[in-house]
Amino acid sequence: MKKFAFFLGCITPLRYPGIEIATRQVMKQFDIGLLDMDGASCCPAPGVFGSFDLWNWLLIGARNLSIAEKLDADITLVCNGYATLQEVNHLLEDEEKRDRVNDVLGKIGRRYSGSTKVRHCVELLAEDIGLEKIKSKITNPLKGLKVGVHYGCHYLKPSKVRLHESPEAPDHLDKIVESLGAESVPYREKLMCCGAGGGVRAGNIDEALDFTLEKVQNMKDAGVDCILTPCAFCHYQFDTGQIELKKKEKWNTPIPVIFVTQLVGLALGMSPKSLGLYEHHISPKYIDKLGLKLGKTKKSSSPTDEAVASC
Q1: Can you say whether the dihedral through the CA atoms of 212, 217, 222, 224 is positive or negative?
Q2: Which of 147, 283, 159, 155 is nearest to 231 (CA)?
């Protein structure tokens, strides 16, 4: 069994634990073990933190990477920690910077060597596991499901650091969707930001929601049943942002959001409940369209369920 250090980041354990359990379950199906990174912290965030304090951003990122190095494993993850940790590796190729970082890390008994690679879970699915092996495990083809794929920003750029596919014409997520029997639906401004990136959500929520509204309107016009994300923060922006737009009376038809490993899990026969789909703010109404026998028992109703009952 191949093993990776699993960096959870912030959003996944705090808001969407279903993303974690779905990823663990799916990777296990393909003989990939995910190791806990005990003591890992925020990555820290790739946009705002590094812009204000590059030095401490480098230190914290290097500390996280050193945890995986102790495990003698490459990192995989489900969030924009991908951007930070991969870019910290890139910047610390500079020997002077690396020595300065290790002078500080040495005070807490740690050392960064640069031996750990950072791989997104999408890379593992598309490249390490491969589409044919995914197809071989499918028990419930997702026929008839129309998916709006969202790539986001940090998964693709800067391309000189990512090095896995074209930043202008990516296709990993689309191919994964199609391999599951679903349809990846083209829509206008597909590569546009969700609105959460670069601190926009924290600094100007109305501007962030304008981005989100444009994205979901374009997807609705294209007739999608759900939005697929590769990033927990994008996931949060779509799942929470649409409810915020509804409260502002700017959006009345929220589209369910699903993480890439949750979608794969459905095709492998895992139940929506075990994948955490009923813990999202927007109910996964596409489940009924699929007509799959997937253990449809829902959690007990909550204020959140009632708030989006009309979705």
Answers
A1: positive
A2: 155
pLDDT, one tens digit per residue, over 123-156 is: 999 999 999 999 999 999 999 999 999 999 888 8
**Distance (Å, whole) CA 276 – CA 16:** 8
The alpha carbon of 122 is separated from its chain's Cα centroid by a whole number of angstroms, namely 9
DSSP string of 249-264? TS-SSPPPEEEHHHHH
Please state, in angstroms and rounded to a whole number, the distance separating the CA atoms of residues 244 and 104. 42
pTM over cut 0.85: yes
Nearest alpha-carbon partner for 6 in 81, 56, 112, 83? 81
Domain boundaries of the chain, sorted by first residue: 2-120, 131-307
Q: Which CATH topology does 2-120 take?
A: Glutathione S-transferase Yfyf (Class Pi); Chain A, domain 2 (1.20.1050)
The pLDDT tens digits of the residues spanning 240-290 come to: 999 999 999 999 999 999 999 999 999 999 999 999 999 999 999 999 888
Q: How far is CA 46 from CA 60, 81, 147, 245, 255, in A?
A: 12, 7, 28, 26, 27
Residue 215, SS3 per DSSP: helix
Residue 148, classed as helix, strand or coil, is strand
CATH topology of domain 131-307: Rossmann fold (3.40.50)
DSSP labels, 12-66: HHHH-HHHHHHHHHHHHHTTEEEEE-TT------TTHHHHH-HHHHHHHHHHHHH
Mean pLDDT of the chain: 90
Q: Which residues contact 26 (CB under 8 A, 6 or more apart)?
A: 261, 264, 265, 268, 270
